[in-house]
UniProtKB/TrEMBL annotation:
Protein name listed in UniProt: Fe2OG dioxygenase domain-containing protein
A Pfam cross-reference name: 2OG-FeII_Oxy_2
Domain Fe2OG dioxygenase: from-to ranges: 168-301
Cofactor, free-text remark: Binds 1 Fe(2+) ion per subunit.
Organism: Aquatica leii
Single GO cellular component term: nucleus
Length: 310
């Protein structure tokens, strides 16, 4: 069932009318989704709007699959895009490009890609914190680097608003999609502590995302993920098959109204200035006009308390 639907959505003419569109929630409510109540934190942080303005839903058919309709400001989205492309691609984070030795030892991805556009087109993923091992699927104490503080704080803040306050960000995969990219159906089960939710932040072009059941025999639900949307896979949905059969161009011009005020004292100040420097931003805008970035944040280890209890 998952495979058949994946093939249908990846085709030239995907059945778009069957894809849940969270811009049209009045139509969806009660049938496919229900609204979720969240903590009303007074202060807007990490490039997010105040949580009283968030629109948060849970799928009726996939318990624990939470969808937050773009809670970011424009500057907030720009911040996470710049961090993903320019900074999270720095050593010692790992990139798909590493095995090909394309980037000289003494250079970082971003500076090198400004001289060689092919390198930019070849970027597919970066891993942060405990590095995902694509072959063995096993995390190792010998393959980890510091997890970026701002991304850990963003994830923990969103977790707290949704009442998952024990969440700790320990590993992330940043996926870089082009218009012809796909991500096959899979489950994320390498983490030791699968009770912890997984947080997925998306920026740039639109994805069709499929979320199915514990096996490939369940028919998946298809949703549009647009720039700024957050998906949380918790409870039963945490171990469900999911994938991205198609990337589509967004219906609106993304991230174009700049110079908006944000209170970003907890973010990197220089990067915040870069977000509102229209000349500096141009290169990132060009990238995002034809690409999508997805940052997938996981907790790997069991919390100390749960080890002591067992
Ligand atoms: C993933 O499942 O690893 C990424 C999902 C997405 O790109 O939305």
């Amino acid at each position: 069932m998952f495979r058949e639907d994946f093939n249908s959505y990846k085709s030239q003419n995907p059945p778009l009318s069957k894809v849940l569109n969270f811009n049209d929630c009045k139509h969806l409510l009660t049938k496919q989704v229900k609204e979720v109540k969240v903590k009303m934190n007074a202060k807007a942080k990490f490039g997010l709007k105040p949580s009283k303005d968030w629109k948060v839903y849970e799928l009726n058919n996939n318990s624990g699959l939470i969808f937050i309709k773009n809670p970011f400001t424009v500057t907030g989205q720009r911040y996470w895009i710049i961090r993903s492309l320019r900074d999270y691609t720095n050593k010692p984070n790992k990139l798909n490009l590493d095995i090909h030795n394309i980037i000289p030892q003494n250079e970082e991805f971003w500076t090198f890609s400004q001289k060689d556009i092919n390198v930019m087109n070849k970027l597919r993923w970066a891993t942060l914190g405990y590095h995902h091992n694509w072959d063995t699927k096993v995390y190792s104490e010998t393959s980890k680097s510091d997890f970026p503080l701002d991304l850990a704080s963003l994830s923990q803040y969103v977790a707290d608003v949704l009442n998952f306050s024990e969440f700790r960000a320990e590993a992330a995969i940043v996926n870089f999609y082009h218009m012809n990219s796909r991500l096959s159906g899979h489950t994320d089960h390498s983490e030791q502590f699968l009770e912890a939710p997984l947080f997925s932040f998306s920026f740039g072009q639109t994805a069709i995302f499929l979320i199915g059941g514990a096996t490939i025999d369940t028919k998946p639900t298809a949703l549009f993920i647009e720039s700024g949307d957050i998906i949380v896979m918790s409870k039963e949905s945490r171990l469900c098959y999911h994938g991205v059969p198609k990337i589509l161009h967004a219906e609106v011009n993304l991230l174009t109204n700049d110079n908006e005020e944000i209170n970003g004292e907890e973010l990197n100040c220089d990067t915040l200035e870069d977000c509102n420097d229209s000349i500096y931003w141009t290169t990132f805008q060009k990238y995002i006009n034809n690409c999508r970035i997805n940052i997938n944040v996981r907790q790997v280890l069991r919390p100390i308390n749960s080890i002591l209890d067992s």
